[in-house]
Structures are given as C-alpha cells and as structure tokens.
Amino acid sequence: MNDTGPDTLVFEDVAISFEQGRRVLDGLSAQVSTRELTFIAGASGSGKSVLCRLAVGLLKPEAGNVTLFGERVDTQPERTLVSLRRRAPYLVQGPALLDWRTLRENVRLADPKAPEEAVETALEKVGLKEWADRLPPELGPGAKKRAAIARALVLKPRYLLLDEPTTGLDRRAAMQVEAVLASLKAQGLGALVVSHDYRQLREIADRVLVVAKGRNAYLGSPEGFLKSPAPELRTLTAPFMEGVTDG
Ligand SMILES: Nc1ncnc2c1ncn2[C@@H]1O[C@H](COP(=O)(O)OP(=O)(O)OP(=O)(O)O)[C@@H](O)[C@H]1O
C-alpha cells in the first residue's frame, strides 16, 4: 500500500485499546507528507491525541505499523526514539514554560548546546525576538504558545506535532499561531495538528484526516472535509461552509 519515504508519516492497520478493552483505534491506515500541514479532526475522545503519541513512539500499537521518515517507530527501542522525538517534537496543549526564566532561556532549555544564533533564529521565526528577555508571565497565551513552538524549533526538527495549538486563544492570537505554522510550512517544515478550530483548518490545512470509529474516515482536502464531514462533526463544521465551492 504505502510509500514509506523519508518525508512521510504512515499508519498501517493500527489498533490500540485501553481499559475495558474498548478499541480507540481499530485498523486505522493513513499516509501523510511531513512537508504538509495535516489537521486531525474527530469527535472528542476519538483518538486524535493517541495518534500523535503513536507517531513518535510514546504509545505502542497493539497491532499494525507506524513509520516516520521511513523508519519504523513502533519497533524502535526507547533510546533511539529519544532522537526521533527531537526530529519530530510533540507539543502538548499547555506551553509548559518556566515562569522564572526568560524566553531566551526557556528556548535554550530544549538544547543547552544550541548556539546562541539558533535560539535567536527560533524566536525570530515565531515573531518573539523582541521579547527574548521577558518572562513568560508577561506574555499572553498566544505568545506563550509561540514560545513553545520556538523551543521545539531550536532542535531543528523535520516535523512538528501539535495538540490543539489554538484552544483557548482569541482570534488574533490564533491567527498569529496560524501565520507561524504557514510560514514554517513554506520553509519545508510540516506539522500534524490536532484541532477543533475549523476556521484555521480551512485557512491553512493542506490535508485533513478524520478519525471516527477508530478508523480513517476521511483523508483529503479541507474543502472536501467541510463539504461532507463525518456526520458527528456536521454541526461543528457548518459555520465554516460559507464560500466553500464545489470542485
Ligand atoms: N493513557 C491512557 N489510558 C487510558 N485511556 C486512554 C489513555 N490515552 C487515551 N485514552 C483514551 O483514549 C480515548 C482517545 O483519547 P484521545 O486523547 O486521543 O482523544 P482525542 O480525540 O484527542 O479527544 P479530545 O478532542 O477530547 O482531546 C479516550 O477515550 C481516552 O480516555
């Protein structure tokens, strides 16, 4: 089925369950490009975050394969997974910055050996260069989120995984995060983004993967998704349909 080339993330027949044996993922297959922005949509509890954790070996599937950059993830030992996670950092919802350290120091924590220039470049890429000497409590939630992205960028990653990067942000802050993701994508750095933000999905996603009933219910363009979403997402996507054209 799959091209497991160096710029791909591939899930093949992946299954995983937790307590009470409920299968969260049940034979999900999908292939995405690590140079694109792929949004994962799906009802709450459908397994979107689980998919991210499987992608970087934080969880192991009970069945199936996961391949990132052409490397099998599910069979890799922890010691090499650490290096894989530097190439594909997974940013969880909270920005987890140290409040008593400046932004520059927070970013440096990701890689204490990184040259000063790499730290400055990372902050510049997220529009926070002028804020390098400030402390996190001085920043709004959107800037904190961008700082967390800068901390990942200092690792010089090849792919990013972001769990709900704009949840809780106002529109302006969400659009700033969105601009950062679009600009990183233009520089060849794609991301897997778990999101309930369908406005943002419509603006910047290259592809949308819908997880429903443990499977890949849709993988395609954002327009196609918004035109015929999974039934359980219909009321959520309806407000964003305006202007979505056929063809
Ligand atoms: N470590 C775990 N132990 C037990 N159950 C888990 C674990 N991780 C996930 N689950 C369960 O798996 C299901 C999917 O979780 P996941 O966090 O991937 O959902 P999600 O689609 O990201 O949801 P949301 O949109 O609400 O964040 C949930 O029912 C959750 O309770």
UniProtKB/TrEMBL annotation:
InterPro entries reported in the protein's UniProt record: AAA+_ATPase, ABC_transporter-like_ATP-bd, P-loop_NTPase
Annotated ABC transporter domain residues: 9-238
A UniProt-annotated Pfam family: ABC_tran
Protein name: ATP-binding cassette domain-containing protein
UniProt source species: Corallococcus macrosporus
Molecular functions per Gene Ontology: ATP binding
Keywords: ATP-binding, Nucleotide-binding, Transport
Taxonomic path: Bacteria, Pseudomonadati, Myxococcota, Myxococcia, Myxococcales
PROSITE patterns found in the cross-reference section: ABC_TRANSPORTER_2 (PS50893)
